[in-house]
User: Fold these one by one.
Assistant:
Number 1:
Amino acid sequence: MEVAQRLKSIPPYVFAEIDKKRQAAVARGVDVINLGIGDPDQPTPPHIVEAMQKAVADPANHRYPPFGGTKEYKAAAAEWMAKRFRVSIDPDSEITSLIGSKEGLHNTIMAFIDSGDVNLIPDPGYPVYRTSTILAGGDPYFMPLTPENEFLPDFKLIPGEVARKAKLMILNYPNNPTAGVADLEFFERAVAFAKKHNILLCHDLSYSEMTFDGYKAPSIFEVKGAKDVAVELHTLSKTYNMTGWRIGFAAGNSQAIKAIHSLKSNVDTDIFKAIQVAAIAAFEGPRDNIDRCNKLYAERRDLAVRRLRELGWEVTPNKATFYMWLRVPPGLTSQEFSTIMLDKAGIVVPPGNAYGPCGEGFFRVSLCASVERLAEAFDRMEKNAIGFNMAKATVKA
Ligand SMILES: Cc1ncc(COP(=O)(O)O)c(C=O)c1O
């Protein structure tokens, strides 16, 4: 049996690999602290779970769901966008349901990238941007995100030849893995670039509600005329602690939505209707759980900032997401540092290069662990002399 070339052309999924290493350590009896994956540790709010429980018992929800989402689901999503961002989205022509934004990203890329087309993607970035582009036969072009450019790509640095071949650009703010944020002025420039080069702009807004210290993340549709060239992917995964439920939506340019919908209707049969009912309860319900979780993440971040500074790191507190993007100690590669963290302290942190070439020299910490577990992680680092100024010779000994 031989698998397709396209499967051989992509690296194994980063988090699956990291999880293998974590499992091996657990099997050796290590009490592993997993700061690796961005998966909220708090439960889905009870009113959403109750809506699901009721809906699952209703036989009307047991049959095939309609393609693109139920009317009620799309209307509730559009209403949520109107309330949260003051933008007007037509639920019939400008929204299609998604089985989470990972699926939405893949199918958006499949719908717009042909062999030889360029997809302009952030580097570092969520790994699917790159792998799905390769699966589509296209060429990812990395737009560097660095501390120096405040993790915002400089569109002027994209060569004309690359821009001519580009069909798609993906942006993601608040950003994974860097926790960078973007303002409307940046999105205006992105929209102008997309218009000039006739490309679809896909904004992955997975972390729209996970913000701190008074910061509020904008939607790209707050930019006038953005709907001419953009779609935005939304997910309930992080906002409502629903990563396991698999539901989201794409909103925006009606032609692009039609293309994504058309591709999807050939490869999946949408989302269990009971889950859509639960998602409506999420959109229409109170925001208090979002505020509670953000308070929790901010407390964890503050603890991490304090302890990491004591360990020698220079840290700017992140305004959004539950990620911290940090430099590895001088003299070590990202991979070496990640391995030391697991082998010496039993802590999982992904190496920055897993997110793209510009991630080399960095690692990501995810704050999906209690303050007690985080404190334990920093205690272990201190005890094992893991700090920003650790000498390579010492740690290799
Ligand atoms: C930037 C980004 N996009 C998309 C996703 C996928 O989320 P979903 O659970 O909606 O598929 C993630 C998940 O971590 C993410 O970080």
Number 2:
Amino acid sequence: MNVIEHVLSRLKVIGIADVFGVPGDFAFPVNDAICSDPDMRWIGCCNELNAAYAADGYARIKGVAAVCTTYGVGELSALAGIAGSYAEHLPVFHLVGAPNMSVQAARALMHHTLGNGEYDLFHRMSQPVVCASAIITPQNVAYETERLIAEALYHRRPVYMAFPADMANQPVLGCAQPISTPGGDPNSLAAATDAIVSALAKAGSACILPGILVARAGLQSELLALINASGLPFATMFMAKSVLDEQHPSFIGMYDGKLMNHGVGAFVEGCDRVLAIGTLFTDFNTGAFTANINPDKLISIVHHRVRVGSKVYPNVEMGDILAALAERVPRRGWGADIDPPSLGAPTGTGTDPITADALYPRWANFLRPDDILVAETGTASMGLGFARMPAGASFHNQTLWGSIGWATPAAFGAALAAPDRRVVLVTGDGAHQFTAQEISQFARRDLRPIIFVLNNSGYLIERLLCKNPAIVYNDIAPWSFADLPNALGCRDWFTVRVDTCGELDQALDKAALAKTGVYIEVVTDCYAASRLALKLHDSMQTLYRS
Ligand SMILES: Cc1ncc(C[n+]2csc(CCOP(=O)(O)OP(=O)(O)O)c2C)c(N)n1
Ligand SMILES: [Mg+2]
């Protein structure tokens, strides 16, 4: 085997069957090897940023992904997407084709360089957004591939592998044993388990806040086993929405600090103990930091560490402690008597305009079991975040990184990873303008998503957050969105623009039955905002006034 074949063979073992990217001359050896491998697919994208977002979406479904770019121009375009995967804990392998080692050593003035003879700059630019990186040679490939796989899976973060073009096709020199990921410390595990069991035994009420890191580590069934064994209720924060099935009888609803669902918030914050399992306390995950859980009551379990109140138990693996707790926490009542709040019944009929109260409940009703819903940053995801998901349906949003334009390619990546599931993409008009061309990839691969573009004539969430909503920077170029699919190669799709509730109802009915891709442009007033978006608006206005 040569260098690149060796790397691909190892990536296949960990579940990567598709590589997203854009080719380039320095990357030809990598591109060719992917295309010649009968068990791998080259998934061409419209640009490298989209390819990185698509890989991010794929990793959300499959657990791992890969993106391949050329040197400099390609890799820098992908960088913002890779940074998002870092922030959101997704192991994406970034494979970069680089100039020959001999050219680098000569500091030659090559295309795609800055013309200053520096060849390590782009590698260095990537380093802060990956957990490990290497320039791959025949001598180091066996060892470095194992190291990078181990790092990516341990930290659930991206890694960077550069392949100088003259190295990629050379035979592998030497061999390395796969590196086993370190297990935890059994004494620390036992102490943490005892501490949690005894804290829960003394608690009158308790609940679980499942977090996104549970999904990233693929530990949903282990957490479910704990919930089923103990009867502990769970509420979910925005970033972790649908990490566990929202139809589960122990689900009590979305917890968003003081902003939404006050009954859920009062219960969570009133509990004697709150188990935050893989939960990240970020701004948009805590109702803009209005979540107020007494740190003394908090039990926090993250990938490799547990904290009970102020005591930290290092080197405890999340999977180990969930299994230990499922065996030891007895089943009992935990004080929760809450039905998950819902968005209610949709308003409006016939020629009524599509208001927020008309739109979000309709979208919620449209969802089906096992759907994959990809919701873009903006007012639409803020509304859909409070729709109760049907059994097995999952909600994906880039809550921490929040780079608009992510959702369209990420939905493509997710659809490619799960071709048998229905993928529903909901994006704002402003966000869609960043990456709309990637809808062509769905048609190219015969994937049939259902795409909703919320056309509210601009950046509504920015209108609500800034001082002057009507200020010019929140306007966007008006597009005929419903004309895009045809121009972009999605020729047989069901495509429609709807301005009224009646038209929306008809479109939803057709979409539910469609055997083709679906693209619905939903036109609303430029201030028709979901409830959470309005709440954020109110808190910003208070801030500006004070
Ligand atoms: C890459 C990037 N650029 C800028 C922003 C700032 N930003 C956040 S939301 C938003 C507007 C979103 O508008 P749209 O997609 O139309 O959704 P709406 O809020 O109107 O529903 C902007 C510009 C961002 N999050 N990401
Ligand atoms: Mg908009």
